Amino acid sequence: MLKKLFNKNKDGNNSPSGITLPDFSRIDGNSNQEATVGKWLVKVGDYVNKGNIIAEISTSNFDLELEVYESGHILFIENTPDKILYPGDLLAIVGNQGDTITHLLEENNQPFYTEEEGQIMEGCLGEVKLFAGSFIPENWSLCDGKELLIDEHPDLYKVLKNKYGGTENHTFKLPLIDIPFQLNYIICTDGFMPK
Question: Which pTM value belongs to this model?
Answer without folding.
Answer: 0.52
